[in-house]
């Protein structure tokens, strides 16, 4: 079984599953918080495959920054797919959507808005960190 197959198989009940060579990391955090935490902890995720419940452009940029080599999303946005393809990261999805919507269903996800005009993974990580801090302060 490939790493991405293992990640997809172990995603049920979690928000994200990362796999490399039989090592499996799962997390139940909401949105991009697991990847933001992994990056803040400087976890070496180079070469891992990732399966995630929702993959928007924000998550895709974090996967690029982390060195993820393959991505599957239960739901993936067109902008995430395009970004992953630009970085030669194979990706798949169960559902492809035009935009990722916020939890209230009233607007575009705030993380997606934050990275809308950003294509650099390091810049995205910094901008997303600022946005999360701002949202926590509200």
Average pLDDT level: 97
Estimate the strand proportion.
15-25%
Instruction: Summarize the helix and strand pattern as letters.
Output: HEEHEHEHEHH
Overall CATH class: Alpha Beta
Question: How many independent structural domains?
Answer: 1
Order of the strands making up the biggest sheet: 2-1-3-4-5
Major beta-sheet overview = 5 strands, mixed
Kindly provide the radius of gyration, computed on alpha-carbon positions and rounded to a whole number of angstroms.
Answer: 14 Å
CATH structural architecture: 3-Layer(aba) Sandwich
Name the shape in a single word: globular
Total helical segments: 6
Q: What is the number of beta strands?
A: 5
Short description:
The protein is an alpha/beta fold. The protein is 41% helix and 23% strand.
Keywords for this entry:
138 residues, alpha/beta, 41% helix, single chain, Cytidine Deaminase, domain 2, five-stranded mixed sheet
Describe the structure.
The chain has 138 residues and is an alpha/beta fold. It has a single domain (3-137), classed as Hypothetical protein TM1506 (Cytidine Deaminase, domain 2, 3-Layer(aba) Sandwich), CATH 3.40.140.30. It is built from six helices and five strands; from the N terminus they run H-E-E-H-E-H-E-H-E-H-H. Helix 4 (78-86) links the parallel strand 4 and strand 5 (91-97). The protein starts with a helix and ends with a helix.
